[in-house]
Specification:
Elements lengths: L11 H7 L5 H22 L10 H19 L5 H24 L14 H22 L16 H22 L8 H11 L3 H31 L7 H13 L7 H14 L6 H18 L19 H4 L7 H15 L7 H5 L5 H4 L1
């Protein structure tokens, strides 16, 4: 008996439910908070010191980045990469330098900053932001598809081979540094790695290959599991579980820098669908803003001690730490170029020959 199939046109209700809708109210409220209320509160809470009006450059950067971030949060499309860029610009290149300049204090990692170049640094940041915005606007978004227009899939055999190879690399790494030392402080683990691999480049390569290899293999296993589920086939359990558990043993809040552990967490929550819908994307975006201001400064509490004593969570005080020295580093770079001119690619040689022993390069 022949089967007949009818293609039904979805009604207006179905179409509306499938099409993500913009959130102008959310975008407006977020823009008012980030580009209006927050700057005014900062100015009110930080009496102006000796740097004059130099804070106006970062203030304009914060206002512009906050506005663009708000528009992305309220848009109907998910712009994850762009959201992260504008979030970084807002917090690290806008809000933080405004607070530092208003208080007349430099971060502990960049003392004695030449504030005569603050305007130059602000111009560099603004030029970079404009270039990024123009690039995004002209490039557009393209779906990730394989040759022939088919959606990309993760090869299960290749994912399994990669996972087994990364687990073997982790076994080597853990054997050399000692398994229990993976739960010691970051400072202690760094010292142990320096003893195991006196050549710092070798140690960095082994550590990076182990942690990022486990991350890639874990994400691959998560995607394989999802593909099997969608196909109605048996889902793998053992390898995904082992890879994720091993990843968190290798990279955890105690032994790893915040940016490494943060990279792992963001990748994993993305793999399990944290950004799969516009609603989830908006929630994660606003949560990331909160985390950057309040959680990021205290996330290294285990850096030198296992005593979980939380630092002060005063946002103004945290913005004076070395975690928020990005704008000052740009100022230092501008001062270096003004004094020594550009290097015409000389520093690029260090990237090309990064594994050459220092004594041989002299």
């Amino acid at each position: 008996m022949a089967r007949t199939f009818a293609l039904q046109r979805p009604d207006a209700t179905d179409t509306a439910s499938m099409t993500p809708m913009p959130a102008p109210f959310l975008a407006t409220i977020t823009a008012i908070a980030l580009s209006g209320i927050a700057p005014l509160l900062i100015i009110y809470a930080t009496p102006e010191q000796s740097n004059g009006m130099s804070f106006l450059g970062p203030l304009a950067i914060a206002a512009g980045a906050g506005l663009r971030f708000s528009l992305i949060v309220g848009a109907r499309r998910r712009r994850l990469f762009e959201m992260v860029v504008w979030l970084f610009v807002y917090v690290f290149l806008g809000v933080a330098p405004v607070i530092q300049m208003r208080l007349g204090l430099d971060t502990n990692t960049t003392p004695n900053v030449n504030h005569a170049l603050d305007g130059t640094s602000a111009g560099i940041v603004i030029a970079g932001c404009l270039a990024f915005a123009i690039g995004v606007a002209t490039r557009g978004a393209k779906p990730v598809v394989a040759a022939g227009g088919r959606a990309r899939v993760v090869s299960r055999p290749r994912a399994n081979i990669l996972t087994l190879a990364c687990l073997a690399l982790f076994a080597y790494y853990a054997t050399r540094v000692g398994f229990t030392n993976l739960f010691t402080t970051r400072t202690n683990l760094d010292a142990i790695r320096a003893l195991v691999w006196p050549d710092r480049t070798t140690g960095a390569l082994v550590t990076g290959a182990t942690s990022m290899g486990l991350l890639v293999s874990s994400v691959a296993q998560i995607y394989v599991r999802r593909q099997q589920k969608n196909a109605g086939a048996p889902m793998p359990v053992l390898l995904p579980l082992i890879s994720v558990v091993t990843l968190f043993i290798c990279v955890n809040p105690i032994n790893s820098p915040r940016y490494v552990f943060g990279t792992v967490m963001l990748a994993l929550i993305a793999a399990v669908g944290a950004y799969a819908t516009v609603k989830r994307f908006r929630i994660v975006s606003l949560a990331a803003l909160f985390g950057m201001v309040y959680l990021f400064p205290v996330a290294d509490m285990f850096r030198r001690s296992l005593d979980p004593t939380a630092k002060s969570q005063d946002p103004l005080e945290s913005m004076l730490s070395g975690d928020f020295d990005s704008f000052s580093q740009i100022t230092n770079t501008a001062e270096y170029v003004a004094a020594n001119d550009i290097t015409w690619g000389k520093q690029l040689l260090g990237v090309v020959f990064f594994w050459v022993q220092e004594r041989l390069a002299r």
